[in-house]
């Protein structure tokens, strides 16, 4: 399970960074999205007690329950916040991207085509 | 302290957030209403910040300083999020609100009409800044960083125009990537220590086992890179001059404090987690800050000399200021840091005044005139000889130019660190503390001294050149029309710098007390977490009651 998650995070990060360094704004925004997926998965991997399957962070009624059987809820809360913020920022960047396309007439990240 | 005063700690966040949201309900045409609401808000923030500075300076019980700890929702730390007002946070709040008042007044003259929802974005920026200074929790810090960044994305684009959109296209992605790094760093630190509370962190770091220590330091380094991007350390700073030059004047002036947020967080976390009490992790990363800061000063100094427009010159001065502060933090000497805090305040005020002033001076000039002027200076103006013949008669300097010129002179003295203004005192305080260290003075210190002097010289040369060609020209160019509401903020910022010179003693004492408190993370932790003994931290923090695992302490 750990190895699958690690490979997933690695793939997302590698593709994200590669796309981020490309010259077209659309590639950059997809790169940013992939990078934020990688980060969100990474936060899960850092949960206290490691990765757990089938252990929702819900206490048994009337008692504390078995602490080893519940997942750490804090990373889940962090991921939720990070997803919301990342989504808003991507939307905002999309608007800027469109504005830049309209104003400069090119989708190059520098706002002008490089001299060839 | 009375319970009512306790709630002052959350007002700097709540007030601008609520007013900013409320203003969204009104139509863009109701400018007068929005203007007066925002004005009342920023001056209320100023009053709150002054009160907080006074409150934290009061002696409390056996201590000569007070700390206001505000647990949100009354959840006890480290389980809930806390807001912490100590001397440093109160100082930064005061600086933010002063800049907020000055730039908002300036923007009211004409810039607020340049785009929609200016006031809401401006107040959100203040919310984010105040929140970042107040919070005592790492993840909460991320949230406030995002608030201030989101507002700043909108404000960079305020006034529209191709140059601003182009600058935004670089500014936004680099900050989004920095935010990703921020999250990675926070996640690693949480994974290792099991806490996000900064005070708790300072208690746990010395008890870590060697394996987790390496991981914790790696996390802190990733987190540090995120803040260094914000602070503009070389080589993470290439976005900064372009963005600052493209933003409209009041926004660029307000952004003067944005790099200082990065500096503030580095100062706080570095001294809390890797200060004198951190055991084996003591001074982790100090050399990176020291040499990185010096490289930034060098880069900023070259940039100042090379810039053709006055706005870019301002952007590079921001870099010099950041570099100086980072290097000063890297020395790890509390006396240097108290000088650096004084420098932080004066340089922020001066850079802010500079950005406002430049817009006023350049108003009379055609776009691109200053680029042409630099070219003419280098290659010689063919018409120059003809012109000079009948210009021998004295020409009266117009009053506006005289006022602007005087203000320009003052900013030059401040930015270059010349006497008699506070820029000189700041540099003198840092240098004398550095050279008064016991024992032999290492080579690195001498290079820092030399770089500080040379950057001052570079600023002086560049500013003089700009001043001569914009203010000392014959009165052919149109005299800029300046309204009182635009001149007053510039004058007020410069007046504050002058006041800091005259009241150098008391201000410096405040800074010294601030720096000394920063060097006692255990006191900070005791104030935030209460008198609970540090013994609840066992070797494995995950089993210690920090996580939901809730093991017995």
Automatic annotation (TrEMBL), chain A:
Originating organism: Ancylobacter vacuolatus
Membrane topology listed for this record: Multi-pass membrane protein
Domain of life assignment: Bacteria
Chain ranges passing through the membrane: 6-21, 28-47, 77-100
Localization (cell): Cell membrane
Main location: membrane
Family: Belongs to the CPA3 antiporters (TC 2.A.63) subunit C family.
Keywords, comma-separated and alphabetical: Cell membrane, Membrane, Transmembrane, Transmembrane helix
Pfam family name, one: Oxidored_q2
Name by which UniProt lists this protein: Multicomponent K+:H+ antiporter subunit C
TrEMBL record, chain B:
UniProt main location, coarse: membrane
Superkingdom in the source lineage: Bacteria
Domain NADH:quinone oxidoreductase/Mrp antiporter transmembrane: 136-436
Intracellular or extracellular location(s): Cell membrane; Membrane
UniProt xrefs under InterPro entries: CPA3_Na-H_Antiporter_D, ND/Mrp_TM
Keywords, alphabetical: Cell membrane, Membrane, Transmembrane, Transmembrane helix
Segments traversing the membrane: 6-25, 37-59, 79-106, 118-135, 141-159, 171-193, 213-232, 244-267, 287-306, 313-330, 336-357, 401-423, 443-463, 484-503
Family note: Belongs to the CPA3 antiporters (TC 2.A.63) subunit D family.
Official protein name in the record: Multicomponent K+:H+ antiporter subunit D
Species this chain originates from: Ancylobacter vacuolatus
